[in-house]
Amino acid sequence: MSAEIAIEAPAERPTRATRERVGMVEHAVWFDRLAYAVLIVGSVIICLPIIYAIVVASMPDGRESEAVWLIPGTALFDNLATAWNKELLGRQLLNSFIMAVGITAGKILISLLSAFAIVYFRFPFRMGFFWLIFITLMLPVEVRIMPTYEVVANAFLPLNAILGLIGLELALEWSLLDSYTGLILPLIASATATFLYRQFFLTVPEELCEAARIDGAGPITFFRRILMPMSITTTAALSVILFIFGWNQYLWPLLVTTDQDLTTIVIGVARTLPTEDADAQWNLTMATALIATLPPVAVVLILQRWFVRGLIESEK
Amino acid sequence: MAELTTRGLKKRFGTTDVLHGIDVTIPDQTFCVVVGPSGCGKSTFLRCVAGLEHASEGEIRIGGRLVNEVEPKDRDIAMVFQNYALYPHMTVAQNMAFGLELRGMSKAERRVKVEEAAGILQLDGLLDRKPRQLSGGQRQRVAMGRAIVRDPALFLFDEPLSNLDAKLRVEMRLEIKRLHRELGATSLYVTHDQIEAMTMGDLLIVLNEGRVEQIGPPLDVYERPNSTFVASFIGSPPMNFIPAELRGGMLHIGEHAISTQMAKDGPVKVGIRPEHLSVSSGSSGLPVTIDDIEPQGAETLLYSRFQETSIVIRQPGKVHHDGSTGALSMDPAHLHLFDARSGRRLETALAHS
């Protein structure tokens, strides 16, 4: 409905007259100045580390300490090239990308399906399941890292244990260590996304589901043809957050991968940090970090346009 | 095209009975309006017929076929919802064609059907728009288009005009009547609006608390209401009720008496429509106090009181009434008698006083 209002009453320019009429916007001069001050301080806090990283990355070897003056050096592209060649950055970027996309896609798929089940189906213990999912919010991977590792090291472990209870001694083994599956699978349950989709589904008018039933749509058709397209805005917004969450994983990949071919870029950055027996090359570390930042930035830029468009267009 | 019948249709939600056994027969090609106050079960009745709710007891037959256990999509029905329930991400054409597509109709056939329906509903130029780019009236047309393309045996309307403004409601009312004339499909139309109830249907069903109060052509219901409930629900302003007493073949209203041929004695309620009353400054008639006069242009409403009972009088044209009292006269031919306790109609023959 809000979209309709926007169509019928094109946004008025916030002239002094309208502002006074609306009576919500404070227009004292000192308030404007305060607002600007807050915005400037906020921007500086957010931008300074990034600018500093770029400046450090642009310094020739041995002159990194001069970066405190925030005057860029001349070696940015040399350093980027050196960093790129020093480690298998291409491979690491690819690994990170596969992991982040896998986690994003997995989380979205599972959350969509579980939210669909919880909102649209009446089954025993429905709310119990919902709260069960909800309390996993309190169990991020850092908390459950030991049992999760054990299960990933042998995916049949729970099965063996259950069969052990009924007296069957089995020693099935299936290790997910050093595999993309092992990187992705333990991270794809998402209470947050399930909750968001649930809240969205609850706003979808019930009549839509009924109209679809009369039109001849079964649950799967309704889900695929009506609900999924309708939640595209939510999905786009979530994808951004989840992709960055996946991309930033450090502890879990560090634990389950030892293979060089499966190293992710975040671990790659960590590896360029100074160790006891090597000199710090901060310009290269920063260059690597810059490279590692680019894909999430790209995702934000691409999807942001998408979901802003969705916000303007969609009715619900 | 089909007849709709229900036999002993009951619906229970948990321990609450919403429908207490509905028996109706709606002949083929009839436009039937179901009316009643909110909470009377009229929407539940419609939803049971649609198959969106499962009937707890009783039979529902569409075209003779028992459909209690049939899925909504297989009942050969189409439904128009109060809030339109259009798919927001689809264009008008896609909205209308969705049901056809799910039934496996070819793209070319769908195109023909949609264009045909768009022609009937004057939606021709709007087929590529999204629902949010349409006005309320246009959205409701699309919702009807979605029903029309399916060519169903039975149309179900769930208060389709309640979300529209007054002017549009009048237009759409005529539009739906025209559509019914053109398509001739059996229709079940649920509303709480008594004007829609009076003007739209061939057949009117008045529901109250999950029971059928009265079924019949709208004017019959208006002229011979079965109970005080129907009498006060159909017609605006509603029928006036004056407490009275039957004694020795005479109907006593205050000081006045009208001779009847009723053998019964006891308290009754006399019902009379506002348009069958007139007030004069003379002294022959019931003495009433006039509280307020509302000129409405073509007619005038007078709000008056007789003893403790308020009485609305509707008189054509302008009324000049001096003073705050008057004498109320009524046409005995238009009196309705109702049992004082149960509110049921008492069949009667009233003579002139």
Secondary structure topology:
The complex is a heterodimer of chains A (316) and B (353).
Chain A: H1 2-8, H2 16-22, H3 29-57, H4 76-86, H5 89-120, H6 126-135, H7 145-153, H8 157-165, H9 180-184, H10 191-203, H11 206-215, H12 219-230, H13 232-247, H14 251-256, H15 265-271, H16 282-313
Chain B: E1 4-13, E2 16-26, E3 31-35, H1 42-50, E4 57-62, E5 65-66, E6 77-80, H2 92-102, H3 107-120, H4 136-148, E7 154-158, H5 166-183, E8 186-191, H6 194-200, E9 203-208, E10 211-216, H7 218-223, H8 228-233, E11 240-247, E12 250-253, E13 256-259, E14 266-272, E15 277-280, E16 286-295, E17 299-306, E18 309-316, E19 325-330, E20 336-339, E21 345-346
Parallel strand pairs in B: 3-8, 3-9, 6-7, 7-8
Antiparallel strand pairs in B: 1-2, 1-4, 4-5, 9-10, 11-12, 11-14, 12-13, 14-20, 15-19, 16-17, 16-19, 17-18, 20-21
Helix pairs in contact in B: 2-3, 2-4
**H-E order of chain A:** HHHHHHHHHHHHHHHH
- From the spread of the alpha carbons, the general shape of chain B counts as elongated
Give unreliable regions of chain A as ranges: 1-22
Mass-distribution shape of chain A: globular
Could you tell me which chain pair has the largest interface and how many residues each side has?
A: A-B, 24 and 25 residues
Over the alpha carbons, how many angstroms does the gyration radius of chain A reach? 25 Å
Q: Count of helices of chain B?
A: 8
- Cα distance spanning the termini of chain A: 7 Å
What is the tally of beta strands of chain A?
A: 0
The SSE string of chain B, one letter per element, is EEEHEEEHHHEHEHEEHHEEEEEEEEEEE
Biggest pleated-sheet summary of chain B: 6 strands, mixed
Main beta-sheet strand count, sense and barrel state of chain A: none
Class by alpha and beta content of chain A: mainly alpha
Largest beta sheet of chain B: what is the strand line-up? 6-7-8-3-9-10
